[in-house]
Amino acid sequence: MKLGWVPIAKVLGFCAVGAACASLVANTLSVPVRGDSERYTVEFTDVEGLHEGNPVTMAGVRVGRVDSIAFADAGGGTSKAVVGIEVSSDHSLDRNTTAAVRYGDMLGARYVALSPPDGVALQPDAGVASDTLEPGGVIPLDRTTPPVDLTALMNGFAPLFDALEPAEVNTLTRSFVETFDGQGATVAALLDRIATLSGDLADRSGVYEQLLTNMNALMTSVDRRQPELEQLVTGLRDLSTSVVGSNDRLAVLLDDGNRAVASLAAALTRSQGAFGASVTDLKSVTDTWIADTPAFEQFVAKMPQFADGVNSISAYGGFVSLYLCNFVLKAGDVEANIFGGTHSEVCR
């Protein structure tokens, strides 16, 4: 069978187009790094979903790609993933650069995000500095973040979803939609208030830190006085039990107390400032007592002796001597001294 040049040309053209398409797809999937690049190593505890060729970004800009992924022993019966990345030579990495595996889209694509510890966007290389990570350097486990395990996250909601009926879920969703429908301005204002509150909390972080420090000191003091606190709680419990067991008497006490307080308030009103003056004078008296504390203590110490003397007067066998020194009767301008001018020795 003899083939003409036309079928052969078509076959060759088809193969050429296929090769070109394959090359285009390969270049698209490989995501090459343009220009010169440097290789670094990043250690992760988990790189689920990350593949060779995935992008490496700085501040959201693609600057490299994942070159290799390998399994390694981390010691102590644990393991780690060692990821080799290529980064354009135009961008340098700080020694404290952190790395995280993040989601690139809803289909589960991953990428490696590099950022400095303070969150400021990394700048293009402006010369080698002492704090620059040398090519071939390693970003260790303590400065990397593994990807979020969505499976474990969704499994956490499994008990809730199992307990809810599909109709209830639909009703709940519909309620949310109807609640926020047409309330865009209100929701925006709410979010603005939340942002303002968050900013205020951030501005007063020092105050809250001091509050937490003081609360820690308070809790430490309370913990040291745990026995006294237990006694206080026990005493309050006993008091509550006694009060509950004497409801009738408590009601009478409250009623009488109410009347007594009302009477006291009326008396204070009628006093027209006399009560305040009494309190002021009482303060003056106490100030005098404080200044003469030794004399007051001596007076109080002698009070029992004085009381004993007064009591002995009315005791069995006690007596009081009375002396009549003068006895005058007076009626108008006339007066008469019954006993004359004679006075006893005691009255002189």
UniProtKB/TrEMBL annotation:
Keyword Ribosomal protein found: no
InterPro entries per the UniProt record, alphabetical: Mce (IPR005693), Mce/MlaD (IPR003399), Mce_C (IPR024516), MlaD_Phospholipid_Transporter (IPR052336)
Keywords: Signal
GO biological process terms, semicolon-separated: biological process involved in interaction with host
Start and end residues of each Mce/MlaD domain: 38-117
Domain of life from the UniProt record: Bacteria
Span of the signal peptide: 1-22
Pfam family for this entry, one: Mce4_CUP1
Residues of the Mammalian cell entry C-terminal domain: 131-318
GO cellular component: extracellular region
UniProt-listed PANTHER family: INTERMEMBRANE PHOSPHOLIPID TRANSPORT SYSTEM BINDING PROTEIN MLAD-RELATED (PTHR33371), MCE-FAMILY PROTEIN MCE1B (PTHR33371:SF17)
Name listed for the protein in its UniProt record: MCE family protein
Species name: Rhodococcus hoagii
